[in-house]
Each structure stands twice: as structure tokens, then as C-alpha cells.
Amino acid sequence: MNILIMGTGYVGVTTGLVFAELGWNVTGLDPDQKKTQSLSQGELTFYEPGLNTLLREHLQSGRIRFTSEPEMAVRDSNIIFLCVGTPSDRDGNADLQFIRQASESIGRYMQEYKVIAIKSTVPIGTNHKLSQWITNAQTVPVPFDVVSNPEFLREGSALHDALHPDRIIIGCESDHAIDVMKTLYEKIQSPFFVTKPKTAEMIKYASNAFLATKISYVNELSRLCENIEVNISDVAEGMGMDHRIGPHFLRAGIGYGGSCFPKDINAMLYMAKQYGAELSILEKVIHVNQTQYSHYLKIWEQKLGTFRDKKIAILGISFKPDTDDLREAPSISIIEHLLESGAAIRVHDPAAKLPPDLLSEQLLQVDLLEEALEQCDAIILCSEWEHYKKADWTRLKALMNQHFVFDGRNVLDGNQMTILGYHYYGIGRHLH
Ligand code: UDX
């Protein structure tokens, strides 16, 4: 079977490479020629561990190729995966223009039966719209089936997540298309959950919103723990041992970011309004997330005295480690606040780069951790890269002017840092 992946962003490239790895012939299609040329030369347009090697391997094996020409690509495929972006529009709704453009090219160029699967996160009912858009673009009627097959991979561990998913969700009403999907995924050992298209679409939103809710819950709890001298990390560990709660997504920090949680929760709230339902919990989830970093900045400013004229090292700016993605990263809000407070900032990140137009004399990005710490008064750790966990904090201390460490992800060993002479503060973290 020939698989066509439409959209060669994060989800598209990972999905394509995973199918190539499973032995299928894959074509990646994207109107952006710069992207397809760079991918054809074995260069990813984003940072993700493990993907570069796999890309080069499968370019060589001939199992994957990239193009910007839709006609042949659509014609030669048996199965098409839509992996195009669904950004938020001004109202918070998911903007479906890329899904619509993709479905129109499918309709225009298809000449025989195809299974068309949506991986992009799309509002409830998109499956149905997609069928209409394809049919309207066809000049002669050709049969097809549409499947909703949401993707749950995380940035930073995309390859592992795509090869070992907790479940494969298939929203589809055609037995033939369900069989095609089963064949496609047969080498992956994961439960296969077949349901209605709308349900599959809802499962994706509901899962992301639930994970964000867990995070906002522990983040808000951390504020209480801060006042009652209890360590939120211990509380979360104890809670997570209950298998009904589970240990994951209970790490308190400066808040969630990224390309999915903020966008998907907004889209859910928009949908709820549209259908006359209330999702008041999610409104609170957003509120806690938006106030979490400022709550801790206030506490940290008190510890330091003031941010004015202080030199602050920001460690890790990506929204999470092992990615260079800055979308909705809490570090950006923190940097903006510190600039307004008159601090001088040096930023370090193993992969992510601040956009050049943000940089100034007051805000520099440096390549070495040592350069960021030189003469600084305080460190604010915004994403938990291994690089910082493994750093030689005994040696680094000598570089600093004052030794305040504000650990926005609770990942450094606070007791050890205190023994070394740092003034260590985390998130809702009372040390023994
Ligand atoms: C998320 C979903 O996990 C994934 O299933 C979906 O396909 C896309 O959205 P991603 O955004 O890549 O994945 O990263 P994730 O690991 O979920 O982290 C999201 C944010 O939550 C990050 O900012 C992270 O730092 C934060 N987070 C995560 C916490 O603050 N605490 C936690 O315990 C876990």
C-alpha cells in the first residue's frame, strides 16, 4: 500500500517515518517547497531526538520521499493521512483552512477508491465536512472512506510515542476502511479502539484537556503547599501511587505550554459555547495556567529583593525539554515580565533559539551555560533539560554573583543545592 502524508510538520514527518519503519511506501506532501527540499536532503526543519537518523535511513532505503506536487502524489496513493495544522483562529476555534485545501486537492486528483484518515486535531463533525469538501471537488464521482485517527504523540518523545502508543483510536463507519487501518498498524502492539468518527474526535480533545487539568490541579495545589510547608512533589508522588490517579502529568511547575494544550482547550471551550454547554472546569484550568508563572515570580522577586538591575539567567526556554519549540512556552511570559521589571537577562537553551527581533542589550542568548551564569544574581529554570540536571553545580557556583536558584520545574536536587550554598526555591517545594 502507498501512503500519502499531507503536511510535513511535526506529526506528519513522525507519522510518515513510523509507517516507513513499519515497511510501507510513504510520500510526504507539503506545498512549502523549502520544507520538502530540506527533508529530501535528510534535514529536519525542527529538532526531535531520533528522527534525523530515521529520516536518512528511509531516504536511503527508498521507503520515504517528499514532494510539493499534489497531482501524482494523490493519484498514486491508497491511503492518505491528513497531518496539516489546525491553528486557533481569533475566536479560539480551530481554523480548518489547511484541512479544506488538502481535501480539495484530494477530490480534484483522485481517480480510484482511497481511505482518507485525519490525524490533525479537529473539531467535532470535521469528518463529515471533509467528506463534503472532497465530494464537491470531484469532477467524476469516485468512492472513498474517511477515518478519524487522532495522534497522541508528544514532542521530545515523538518517535517512541508513535511506535508504542497506549491505544490506536479509529473513528470510522466503513468495515473495509477499518480493515485497511488494522493492516496498516498490524505490527504495532497496542489496543485498537474502533468507534464513531465524532467520538474519536472528542477522545483527542478530552484527553488533552484532561492532562492539562491534572497539571493545573497540582499547580494550584502547589500554591497551598507553599503556605503550609508541604512539598508538592511528595504529595504528587503519594497521590500517583493510587492507580486510579496514576503518576503521570502531576509534576508541578510554571505551567504547561506547547502547540496542543492551550490551543485544544480553547477550541473545546469554543465548541462547548457553540453547542450550548458549559465547561467551567476548563476555564479554571486556563486561569490557573495563566497565573502560575506570575504567582511564583512574585514570590521569587521577594526572595531576591527586586528584579530591577539584577542579572538573571534563564535556563531552558522551550515549552518542554528535547524540543526547540517555543510555542506558548511559559519562559516567554517570564522573560517579558523580567524585561518590564528592569532585569538584565541571559538565556541559555540546548536547542531553542529566541527570535532575533526579541534580542537586545537587556536580553541576550548565549551558547554556553557558563556564559549565562557569569556574574548573575539568580537562575530561573524554565524547562528541565538533562543538561541542567547533570550540570556540575559545585563548579558553576563560583561564576555567580549571588546564588539564588528558582527551579520552575522542581528538577534539581534542592537539598543538595542548599548544602552547596545556593538559595534554592522550587514550586510548592518545602525542603526537609
Ligand atoms: C501533548 C500531549 O501529551 C500529546 O498526547 C498530544 O498529542 C500533543 O500535546 P506535548 O505538548 O508535545 O504533547 O507535550 P507534553 O509532554 O504533553 O507537555 C505539555 C506541557 O505540559 C509542557 O509544557 C510540559 O512542561 C507540561 N507538563 C507536563 C507539566 O507542567 N507537568 C507535567 O506533569 C507534565
Radius of gyration: 24 Å
Bound molecules: uridine-5'-diphosphate-xylopyranose
**CATH H-level superfamily of the largest domain:** NAD(P)-binding Rossmann-like Domain
CATH architecture of the largest domain: 3-Layer(aba) Sandwich
Structural class: alpha/beta
Q: Output mean pLDDT.
A: 96
Largest sheet: 6 strands, parallel
Shape: globular
What is the count of DSSP helices, taking H or I runs of 4+ residues? 17
Low-confidence stretches: none
CATH topology of the largest domain: Rossmann fold
Helix content: 40-55%
Pathway: Nucleotide-sugar biosynthesis; UDP-alpha-D-glucuronate biosynthesis; UDP-alpha-D-glucuronate from UDP-alpha-D-glucose: step 1/1
Family: Belongs to the UDP-glucose/GDP-mannose dehydrogenase family.
Pfam families: UDPG_MGDP_dh, UDPG_MGDP_dh_C, UDPG_MGDP_dh_N
Protein name: UDP-glucose 6-dehydrogenase
Provide structural commentary.
There is one protein chain. The protein has 17 helices and 14 strands. The chain is of the alpha/beta class. It folds into 3 domains: 2-195, 3-Layer(aba) Sandwich (Rossmann fold); 204-284, N-(1-d-carboxylethyl)-l-norvaline Dehydrogenase, domain 2, CATH 1.10.1040; 288-425, 3-Layer(aba) Sandwich (Rossmann fold), CATH 3.40.50. A 6-stranded parallel sheet has the order 3-2-1-4-5-6, with helices on both faces. Helix 1 (10-21) crosses helix 3 (51-61), helix 9 (197-228) packs across helix 11 (261-274) and helix 9 (197-228) packs parallel to helix 12. The radius of gyration is 24 Å and the shape is globular. The structure holds uridine-5'-diphosphate-xylopyranose. Uridine-5'-diphosphate-xylopyranose is lined by residues 151-155, 208, 211, 215, 249-251, 253, 256-258, 260-261, 319-320. Uridine-5'-diphosphate-xylopyranose (UDX) binds at residues 151-155, 208, 211, 215, 249-251, 253, 256-258, 260-261, 319-320.
